[in-house]
Amino acid sequence: MKAVFLNKTARAGAVVLAVAGAFFTTSMQEVSSAAPKIGYPADNNNECTDVQVQCSDNLSAFLCRVNGTSGAIAYDKDSDNNCIQPLYRP
What's the predicted TM-score (pTM) here? Predict the structure, then answer.
């Protein structure tokens, strides 16, 4: 009797794990699809410099900076070469 019960619960557990694994794999693919954004530090006139930094435009608690956690804040460049919108650390 115990063997029958164990056999049935093992099959049900395997199905539950397979479904959970499928959802987990799908959610991980959605997270990694964000493309990096190139950021530029601004000079005193709010014009972008030539220094490029890997950033993200996804909202985060940390701003993207030239030297990782220190240095000038990196901004998104508009068509007039102005740095207005700050970017976030990837």
Answer: 0.59
